[in-house]
Amino acid sequence: MMSQVISAYRIKKIESIGEMTAVSQEDVVNHTRTIVQGLEALRNEHTTILAGLNTALEHSPTQAQQPVQNVPEKAGILQKSLDQIELGLSEAQIMLALASHLQTVEAEKQKQRAQVRRLCQENMWLRDELASTQLKLQASEQRVAQLEEDKKHLDFMASIRKYDADVQEGEAGHDQPAKEKQEETSTDYFPDDDGDERSTLSPTPPAQFAQQVSAGYEIPARLRTLHNLVIQYASQGRYEVAVPLCKQALEDLERTSGHDHPDVATMLNILALVYRDQNKYKEAANLLNDALAIRKKTLGDNHPAVAATLNNLAVLYGKRGKYKDAEPLCKRALEIREKVLGRDHPDVAKQLNNLALLCQNQISQDERRGVPRDEMIGKYEEVERYYQRALEIYENKLGPDDSNVAKTKNNLASAYLKQGKYKEAEILYKQVLTRAHEKEFGAIDGDNKPIWQVAEEREENKNSGIDEKKNGSSSTGPYGEYGGWHKAAKVDSPTVNTTLKNLGALYRRQGKFEAAETLEDCAVRSKKELSEPMSAAVQARPSSPTRHHDDPRHQHSSTGIKKIFHAFGFQS
């Protein structure tokens, strides 16, 4: 009977547990408490029955044996049931404790959720505040950028008068002698091995940029001011302003004059040179080829402007290392200039210099590729002929003191060095230094010696123990021993400084280390003295804006460009 009750209770408990899976936690806790109460009552009942059986077993030992023998068995069964009831009560207590813990955890979770909701609201508020502040900052930056652009616009508009005055002066002096005109012209050389120390993205100097654009073609009045402004922007490296300015002018010219017009070719040439300074060689080549086709069509195949465009295209190919493609272009430009200007014109000498440098770089390229030197002898002779003829033209037309004479001698000397003709190169270097010395200190005599002669004397006397300061040689010269000669480098200082370094390297190759150190020390002094005023000029010049696309100062650059554009009479 008792086992049936226990089995029924277990089945009921299992059914109640199954029902609890579909009820809430609170219902489960209530059912558990009810079960605990039932188990406690059942435990008390079992305890009472077990105590009665034990009492009956103790006080009736002499009665019938059959009932007494069943009492221990019943007592054992009751004890097992009682143990299971205790286990159930323990499990129920654990469940109640767990329920209490879960309630505590749930309460803490609700508290944390409330805290998270509060933090999210505060975060949204802070985001709104940040967005509002950023909008205010952006508006302020835009106002500052607009004010800066307006100020720059006013500054450049004020400079228009100066440029117009320069143009008028150029027109008034149009009939001046050819020598004065040539002195205003800056030659466009390929960089030689020693003379070009500019970085890859260094902007072209204004005078050189202007000469490359306008050579052989007079810029019309309506483009002069715009042309001058583009040159100024490009020479300062402000390509983010120069390029849109050129493009807008180009669109207006094509709309008003058509594509096949010399003015369009001039603007294409300007934009191509700006792209070349930015190392955008492909775009520059396309523009120059377009400009060349227009000038050939409108001006003829033998016009100086065609030669200028051919030269610029050859220079571009040279910068890309395509010397073989550049050579025929350069030779064609030389042919045109010889035919139009005459064989002894300074522009012909400039073209000869360019052609020689191009061939010289082509030789260097072939050497790196392993071409035998015997196969390049004819090319070396060709380079020498070009330099010698250019040197003869410069000396006859511009005089021995012209800066192009020294530059050409340096280039010719470099060609001699590559062929191992050290004596010929040394003579040219000494001629350059001697002429610079005479211009600074007067005629050469026993007490007025050029720097290379002082260097050679120091080389001869380095082991003889002669003290130049004791025998008075340091005080008889106009510059005190040799240290003060660096002032003479003010005369065409880049070329003289290059010559000092080149001759010093030649001395060092010949084992004349004392003479080499003398010239190198002089070159260092010269470069240092030259850099000081340049540094001061750079610091004094107002800084140009940094060219970044994300710079807020450039967000309104197109507005300033349009204002400048309208000021020149163009339609945007």
Automatic annotation (TrEMBL):
The keyword Lipid biosynthesis does not apply. GO terms for cellular component: cytoplasm; kinesin complex; microtubule. Its main location: cytoplasm. TPR repeats lie at residues 265-298. It comes from the Eukaryota. Residues 168-184, 457-471 have a biased composition (Basic and acidic residues). InterPro entries: Kinesin_light (IPR002151), TPR-like_helical_dom_sf (IPR011990), TPR_rpt (IPR019734). GO terms for molecular function: kinesin binding. SUPFAM superfamilies: TPR-like. Oligomeric complex composed of two heavy chains and two light chains. This is Kinesin light chain.
